[in-house]
Amino acid sequence: MTAPRRIEDLPRRNATRAKNEWGKLQREARSAGGVVVTHHGEDAMVVLEAGCYRDMVELVEQSRAQQRPAIAELTREFDQHLAGLQDKGTHGRMDRVLTARGRTRTRPKAGPTF
């Protein structure tokens, strides 16, 4: 089986020719790694060998499995932040911060080089 190539690099066949020359299309897909079937000049689908498709699905599943722990950690962190925002005292603190408009209760102290 040939490794997958970029869609732009694959041979192209219009839908009518693909239908009328199905056997030839299969052989070409096997040798070229796939064939793009077009409909009215637009890419409509890619014909691949079944083994190539299975390999691609397996790669996607492996990638998703690797991402799950990171997504779970991000979800945990988000849930912690959300719980903090939903705390009873948060609403009042946020109101005070927003109404202060940058003003502080005490005057800031400037350093010795000010």
Q: Keyphrases for this structure?
A:
about 110 residues; single chain; YefM-like fold; 4 helices; alpha+beta; three-stranded mixed beta sheet; elongated
Explain what you see.
- The structure is a single chain.
- The chain is an alpha+beta fold.
- Among the domains are: 42 residues, YefM-like fold; 37 residues.
- Helix content is 56%, strand content 12%.
- The protein contains four helices and three strands; from the N terminus they run E-H-H-E-E-H-H.
- Strands 1-2-3 form a three-stranded mixed β-sheet.
- A hairpin with a 2-residue loop joins strand 2 and strand 3.
- The longest helix has 36 residues.
- The protein is elongated.
- The model has no long low-confidence stretch (mean pLDDT 88).
The low-confidence parts are: none
Order of helices and strands: EHHEEHH
Helix tally equals 4
Rg, nearest Å: 30 Å
Strand order of the largest sheet: 1-2-3
Do you know the CATH topology of the domain at 7-48? YefM-like fold
Biggest sheet, in brief? 3 strands, mixed
CATH architecture descriptor name of the domain at 7-48: 3-Layer(aba) Sandwich
Provide the residue-averaged pLDDT.
Answer: 88
The CATH first-level class of the domain at 7-48 comes to: Alpha Beta
Give helix % range. 55-70%
Distance between the termini: 73 Å
The tally of strands reads: 3
Q: Shape from CA axes?
A: elongated
Strand content: 5-15%
Supply the helix-strand structural class.
Answer: alpha+beta
